[in-house]
Amino acid sequence: MALWTPGDTLVLATHNLGKLREIEELLRPFAVPVVAAGALGLPEPEETGLTFIANAELKARAAAVGSGKPALADDSGLAVSGLGGNPGIYSARWAGPGKDFGVAMDRVRTELGDTPDRKAAFHCALSLAWPTGQIITFEGIVRGTLTFPARGSKGFGYDPIFIPEGHSQTFGEMDPIAKHAMSHRARAFEPLVKAVFA
Ligand code: ITT
Predict the structure, then answer these.
(1) pLDDT per position in the chain (198 positions), as tens?
(2) Which residue of 7, 19, 82, 95 could cross-link 104, Cys pair, CB 3.0 to 4.6 Å?
(3) 75, 100, 117, 175: which one is catalytic?
């Protein structure tokens, strides 16, 4: 049975505008009608999971049940080697209630101190859930190094301090198209679209 019924509307189960923009861009070639969870008045569920996958599945399920439509959720974050993988699943929470990523990036810099290990990786789990309970999940990772001070105003979140492996610009300096060619989100997206829309 085909997973996707052409014409179905897909709920994008995120309240993060940076993610929303990137997911819409990644979905554009497939001409899938989308609606954001916020536009449907769906609440932000509490992220009680201990892994990216658990949180992506919890958000996708909540939106699918709440809307009666298939829903796509993204749980992602920055794992810093010298900080034992933090902020990881707590990446959004490090920005505080004001969602200020200047504060979050400063905290990464402060906690790293003089640690020579500047390695980090962005992780992304993407889950697509149906109101029937069916769910599929894929993960993507991009490895790189951190740089301070922050550079660039493109992208969102921790992009201005992250340089992907083999490049010299931060994600904050790169064109969105260049980021989509290698990002954790795009890497999780690839098997998902093959399984569902292609
Ligand atoms: P939703 O749960 O509503 O999707 P959120 O921002 O709370 O939004 P997460 O819990 O997945 O989402 O938090 C992930 C955080 O990691 C996010 O707020 C970003 O700051 C950061 N992050 C994830 N992907 C990123 C990217 O591509 N570039 C920069 N930062 C990213």
Answers:
(1) 468 888 899 999 999 999 999 999 999 999 899 999 999 999 999 999 999 999 999 999 999 999 999 999 999 999 999 999 999 999 999 999 999 999 999 999 999 999 999 999 999 999 999 999 999 999 999 999 999 999 999 999 999 999 999 999 999 999 999 999 999 999 999 999 999 987
(2) 95
(3) 75
- Phi and psi at residue 129, in whole multiples of 5°? -120, 145
Q: Whose CA is nearest to atom 31 of ligand 1?
A: 157
Q: Is the CB of 172 under 6 A from ligand 1?
A: no
- The pair phi, psi for residue 194, each rounded to 5°, is -65, -40
Where helices occur in 2-141 by DSSP H, the ranges are: 17-27, 52-67, 101-112
CA distance 155 to 66: 29
CATH 3.30.780.10 fits 10-196, yes or no: no
pTM over 0.90: yes
CA 176 to centroid of ligand 1, rounded, Å:
16
Residue 37 Cα: closest atom of ligand 1: 3
Parse the chain into domains and list their residue ranges.
10-196
State in Å: Cα 194 to ligand 1 middle: 24
